[in-house]
Write a structure and sequence with these properties.
The protein is mainly alpha-helical. It has a domain of 65 residues. Helices cover 45% and strands 4% of the residues. It contains three helices and two strands. The chain is elongated. 10% of the residues are buried.
Amino acid sequence: MSHATDADGSDGQPKKAGLFDIRNIIGALLALYGVILTLAGLLGEHEPEKTGDVNANLWTGLALLAVGLGFFGWARLRPIVVPPDVEAPDDDPVRPGPQRKRPPAH
C-alpha cells in the first residue's frame, strides 16, 4: 500500500505529541512508584499497629498504578495534536549569547 506524501515528507496526517506528552511522563512515574509500593506491600513486613490494620503500601501502590494507567489512557484517548503551521519563535533580543539569524518571513 502506498501513501501520498506532501512536499515536506509528511503524509498529511496531523502530528501528535506522542511519547513526549507530559501525561505519558507523569503516568510512567506514577506507575513506577505504584509498582514499587505494591511490591513493598506484598513482600515487605506489614506492621498493622502503625497503620490501623491497613496495608498502606499495598493500597497506595494500587491507587498509584490506577492513576498512572489513567494518565496513559487519557493521553491515548485525547492526544495533543500539533498544528502544522506553527512557527518557531524569534530570538529574544535581550537574551545573552549569540543570536540566530532568520530569513525574513514571506
